[in-house]
Amino acid sequence: MKLFKQHGFNPRTDLGQNFLIDLNILEFVIKNAELNRKDVVLEVGAGTGGMTTFLALKAAEVVSFEIDSNMYGFASHAVQGFDNVALIHSDALKSKNHLSPQLVDLVNERLTDGRRLKLVANLPYSIATPLVSNIVATELDWSRMVITIQWELGQRMAARPRRSNYGALSVWLQSQCHVKILRKVPPTVFWPRPKVDSAIVRLIPAPEKRAKIRDRAFLLDFVRRLFHQRRKLLRGMIVGMYRKQLAKDDVDDVLAEVKIKEGARAEELAVPVLVELANKIHERIESK
To answer: What is the pLDDT of residues 254-280, one digit of tens each?
Structure first.
């Protein structure tokens, strides 16, 4: 707060700037990241560089992105004594559906000699969903994410069928990762204080789950479209989605193969069932 006052800056609400100021929570995040000298850490939202310096002490290298010019200046000063930090003044995303090519290149350059990528960050809310989703969608060799995000988003990531927050994001992440909410944290651990609680969430890749997906791009498109109108009956949704590629009889055959009952809705189906359904539909379309 003194630093901001000294420079006449205010946190930017449009960038979701809420800075983690509780050292106990910061240490909890670092501990659960399980960092060592074989890790390359990606941080998005360096802020004043407080977490960046903690990461640099534990990891082989840190690639940290900060889009705000004022924060970039603060963070640059904080990490000037570390030769294993690449601080980038840029957006981590090229678009909503794509990571920045610069991010991908910088990370890949460092993933040598058996090094592993980990995302460890206090993520701004506006970037959290596309960043995590896009990292999972890439071929980047990541081994863990430990992130601080809004509580509601953490619940969506870990949601189970028949819950109101179970949706495309839940299915996409859980089809390829083990997702766990490690801790709920109150607004008091941030400055300025957000209006909602936050969550510390851990994601670990699940290669055995990912191997069951026939085409990941197709699955992502499938679940996004399917949950766009989550309350509609599953059969009608799929018939409408693929009316140019599949006849109604094809859809009925696929639903029967997957043993989905008449009247089912997407929000009722477990992740493995939705993956199998997407696989069968993709296979049927390709056979046409």
So the answer is: 999 999 999 999 999 999 999 999 999
How many Cα neighbours within 13 Å face the side chain of 164? 1
Q: Which residues contact 149 (CB under 8 A, 6 or more apart)?
A: 123, 125, 128, 198, 199, 201
| Alpha-carbon span 272 to 275, nearest angstrom | 5
Find the farthest-apart pair of alpha carbons in the chain and give their distance in angstroms, rounded: 69
Reported as a single tens digit per residue, the pLDDT across 196-246 is 999 999 999 999 999 999 999 999 999 999 999 888 999 999 999 999 999
The pTM assigned to this predicted structure is 0.93
DSSP alpha helix (H) spans, the chain: 2-7, 23-33, 50-58, 69-78, 101-110, 125-137, 151-158, 168-174, 207-210, 216-226, 234-241, 248-257, 271-287
Name the superfamily (CATH) of residues 2-206: Vaccinia Virus protein VP39 (3.40.50.150)
67: Cβ–Cβ under 8 A, 6 or more apart, which residues? 15, 89, 90, 91, 92
**Residue 270 and residue 274: Cα distance in Å, rounded?**
6
Q: Identify the bridge partners of residue 200 per DSSP, sorted by sequence position.
A: 148, 183
Cα separation, 49 vs 78, in Å, equals 6
Q: Do domains 2-206 and 216-287 have the same CATH topology?
A: no
Q: Is 284 helix (H, G, I), strand (E, B) or coil?
A: helix
Q: Where are the domains of the chain?
A: 2-206, 216-287
Are the beta carbons of 142 and 131 closer than 8 angstroms?
no
CA separation for the pair 117, 127 (Å, rounded): 19
Q: What b/e sequence results for 93-111 when a residue is b if at least 16 CB atoms lie within 10 Å of its CB, and e otherwise?
A: beeeeebbeebbebbeebe
Fold (CATH) for 216-287 = Helicase, Ruva Protein; domain 3 (1.10.8)
